[in-house]
Structures are given as C-alpha cells and as structure tokens.
C-alpha cells in the first residue's frame, strides 16, 4: 500500500488576511470570522471569537450577538485556491507528487520520498521545516489511502505513522459525520445502526452493494485502499503571476511597497527554484472605479532578488498618480531567462556601485525606456549624421571604425550658426564633399579656429565664401 500524508488548513483565508503586509493594522483583540454567503454560516474564526462562544456553522446574527465588534469577512474561494497553490509551490521545493484538494487541503504521496529522505521521520521533518515559514495553521495525518489520511487530518489526528494497524484502528474510530459521505448516505446508514467506520466495515462489500448502492462500495474500497484512487498531481506553473487583495484602499502609491515586496518575495523563490532571472515585470493596479493601471519595469541585466526589483518599482511609482484608490495588485513576470555565467576580469577591480546594465535599469525605471538611448558611430562622413541613437549599450558593427586622426569637437551644434566673431585659423582646411547619394549633397571646408576669448571652434566655409560655426572643443 502507498503511504499518504494529508495537510488540512482550516483557516486559510483568515490566516492569509492576518499575515498580509497591512494586516498589522487589524485589532488583534477583535473577534474575526469568515462567513459563507449562501448559507450565512461561519466557516472560519480566530481565537478571540472562539473565546466569546462563537462556533463553526453558527449563523451570523447569533455570532454578532455573542461577540461585540465582530469583524466579518466574506468567504473568497478564489483567494483560498490561490493560497493553496502558493503552499503547494512552496512544498514543491522539498517533495514531489503533490495534489491539491480544494478548498483547503493538500495531499502528499509519501511512499516515493522515503528512500530519498532515509525514512518517514526525516521526510516529515523536511516538510515541517518548510511549512514553518508560512503563516498558515494546519492539522495533519498519514494514512494508507487518500480518504483515510484526509479524514484523520480533518479531525486533527496530528500523527505521522507507518503502522498499518495503528492507522487502521484510528480510521475505524471515526464517526460517519467525519467522512466524505453525503448526508443522504449517512442518514440511511444511521437508520440501520451504522454510526462509525467500524460499524460500516463489519458489513461485507457485496452486502453494501446490494443494500446501499455502488457509490458506497467505491468509497469503502478507496478508504481501505482496496480500490485504486485516481489522483491529479500538481505541477508548478511555468509563468509567475500572483495577486494580492489590499485590506484598505490606497491612494498614495508609496504605501504599496510592503504588499509589493511580499509578491516580489514569492517571485524570488519562483526564480530561485528554476535558476532564472527576470528581465521584465508587469504590475497591475486595480482601482476602485473598475479601471486598471499597468506598470512595466525592466532589468537589462536580469534580476531575481526582491529588494532589487522593489527599488526599480519605487522609482517608477514615485512619478505616477492614480485617479482612484487601489484595491488590489497583481504581479506577473513578462520575460524570464536562464541565468548566465558572469564573466569578469580578476584584475579589473570594482568600477562603481552599479554595473552598466544595473545603471541602465535604474535610468529606465526613473525616466522611462524611451528616454534612455545609446549612441554609436555610423559610416556617414557628414558631421550631423556621423553618429546615431541606438539601443542602450548596443555595440557598433566591427566594420565601422572612426578615423582617430581626425579632430572632432566634443560639442556639435544642432544647426550651424553664421560665424559673427573674429577668429584665428589654426588648422585646415579639411574638405568634405559628400552626400550626393541621398539628395543632401554638401561641399564644405572645415577649419579649427580660436576665438579672441580663447575658445576653440570648429568652423566651415561654403563655396559661396560664407562662414559658419558648427561645433566647439571642450
């Protein structure tokens, strides 16, 4: 028989709320409950509410009369499903064969991991060490079938064992109300004196089939491990995407740093697991008026650390304003790539606080991608076309090499100006007769001149003997 471990998270949504970045604003002495809207019943509660006599399954009106200042939260199945996936993703670092059991359970096939961890005790300790980093309370149990492990964990059995006899004895002591059987089946069995699993197992399977139908036979067979139980195992997503519901509306985007850092920490673990860097992240701000605002941040070098990404987002957000308060944020990785080995010269030493790619990422986050350009030499001899804007840090083709023997000014005017001061010609002329191929032909004689105030100028003369100032030497 295979050995299974079931983890039951009885207060998944409530724990997620209390552990949120702005959860410290909640009054910890206040009773808190999660209410299922359709039935108007309490399905989760904190210790304070329990101390005031509130019970699971109780109606909202009754609970409110028993606990003053009760904080009521509507049940969100989508949030619990997302948190369940986060837990599975976290556990995937230490174990395989994980199955999600919505709305609040995770099933682990332990048998295949015992050889790797040299026994059940070591395997379970690895799981506990991984779970202690998460804010969720849980109960657990092992069993020789998924149904058995789930039933024992649901009643907080909280024991991990490989003893088939001990586990079978624990299962038999369970009441039918603790099983996955429908209320109709439980009522039918109670009418004939069957109230526990032990009572049910005393009846032979052929008799169960005749008297109660095949559904009950299938349940008993899978509970005892006699029948095969089909399990869909969890596989981590290839793309990172997480959302976070804010407890309070935020209009000052600087206050988004804490919840954003939480999402970035999840991204960091996602990238570490895959040995990847992220090059572009997308942050969606969901506003109260129903609109969304998108923030794109890129890292030219690639980055995985949450604090590095946070600094880039802070630069981006400080220049943004939203028309309506933010109620939810969502983070997704647009571009990721495998880590590449860094190549550096041992004798170069540290050249600065930031590498060129890191500096580029900071400038793009602050100024915008379109505002940051590189510059490179072209093959065109015309001064105003001899260089061009390009993608930042892009290298010029090896065939384009500037003539180092030619003196060129460090400051080139956007447009030549008529020369209106007396100058002394120091060097020249340098004839430029070019541009005939694109209809912008030019014939100029360039000179290096010195003005009376000591400035070094780059001037030229046209065939019509007109003089112009085109640049200045620094």
Protein model, in words:
By secondary structure, this protein is α+β, with helices and mostly antiparallel strands. The chain folds into three domains: 4-30 and 70-224, no CATH class; 241-338, Dna Ligase, domain 1 (2-Layer Sandwich); 383-472, no CATH class. It contains 15 helices and 18 strands. The protein has helices at 12-18, 47-51, 60-66, 77-91, 114-117, 120-131, 146-154, 164-172, 183-191, 197-201, 205-212, 214-224, 257-274, 306-317, 356-367, and strands spanning 4-8, 32-36, 41-45, 71-74, 98-101, 105-109, 139-143, 241-250, 276-287, 292-303, 326-338, 374-377, 387-390, 411-418, 423-434, 442-451, 456-461, 467-472. The strands form five sheets. The protein has a five-stranded antiparallel sheet, with no helix packed on it. A four-stranded antiparallel sheet has the order 5-6-1-7, sandwiched between helices. A four-stranded antiparallel sheet has the order 8-11-9-10. A hairpin with a 7-residue loop joins strand 15 (423-434) and strand 16. The longest helix has 18 residues, at 257-274. It starts with a strand and ends with a strand.
């Amino acid at each position: 028989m295979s050995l299974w471990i079931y983890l039951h998270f009885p207060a998944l949504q409530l724990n997620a709320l209390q552990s949120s970045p702005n959860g410290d604003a909640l009054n910890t002495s206040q009773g808190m409950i999660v209410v299922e809207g359709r039935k108007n019943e309490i399905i989760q509660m904190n210790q304070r509410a329990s101390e005031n006599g509130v019970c699971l399954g109780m109606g909202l009106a009754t609970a409110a009369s028993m606990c003053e200042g009760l904080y009521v939260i509507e049940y969100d199945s989508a949030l619990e499903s997302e948190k369940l996936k986060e837990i599975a993703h976290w556990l995937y670092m230490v174990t395989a064969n994980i199955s999600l059991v919505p709305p609040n359970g995770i099933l682990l096939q332990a048998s295949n991991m015992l050889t790797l961890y040299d026994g059940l005790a070591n395997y379970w300790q690895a799981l506990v060490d991984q779970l202690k980093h998460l804010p969720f309370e849980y109960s657990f149990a092992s069993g020789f079938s998924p149904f058995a492990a789930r039933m024992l964990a649901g009643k907080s059995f909280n024991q991990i064992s490989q003893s088939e006899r001990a586990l079978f004895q624990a299962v038999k002591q369970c009441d039918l109300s603790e099983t996955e059987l429908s209320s109709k089946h439980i009522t039918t069995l109670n009418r004939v004196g069957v109230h526990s699993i032990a009572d049910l197992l005393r009846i032979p399977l052929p008799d169960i089939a005749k008297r109660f139908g095949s559904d009950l036979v299938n349940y008993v067979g899978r509970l005892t491990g006699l029948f095969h139980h089909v399990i869909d195992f969890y596989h981590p997503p290839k793309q990172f995407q997480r959302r976070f519901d804010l407890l309070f509306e935020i209009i000052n985007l600087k206050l988004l740093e804490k919840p954003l850092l939480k999402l970035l920490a999840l991204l960091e673990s996602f990238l570490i697991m895959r040995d990847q860097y992220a090059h572009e992240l997308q942050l969606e701000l969901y506003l109260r008026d129903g609109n969304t605002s998108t923030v794109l941040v890129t890292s030219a070098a690639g980055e995985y650390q949450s604090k590095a990404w946070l600094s880039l987002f802070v630069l981006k957000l400080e220049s943004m304003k939203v028309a309506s308060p933010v109620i939810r944020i969502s983070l997704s990785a647009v571009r990721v790539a495998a880590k590449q080995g860094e190549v550096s010269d041992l004798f170069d030493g540290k050249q600065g606080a930031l590498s060129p790619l890191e500096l580029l990422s900071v400038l793009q986050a602050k100024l915008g991608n379109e505002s940051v350009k590189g510059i490179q030499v072209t093959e065109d001899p015309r001064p105003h076309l001899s260089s061009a804007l390009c993608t930042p840090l892009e290298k010029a083709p090896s065939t384009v090499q500037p003539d180092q023997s030619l003196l060129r000014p460090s400051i080139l005017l956007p447009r030549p100006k008529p020369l209106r001061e007396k100058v002394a010609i120091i060097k020249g002329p340098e004839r430029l007769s070019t541009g005939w191929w694109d209809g912008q032909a030019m014939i100029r004689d360039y000179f290096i001149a010195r003005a009376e105030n000591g400035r070094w100028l780059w001037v030229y003369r046209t065939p019509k003997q007109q003089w112009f100032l085109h640049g200045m030497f620094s």
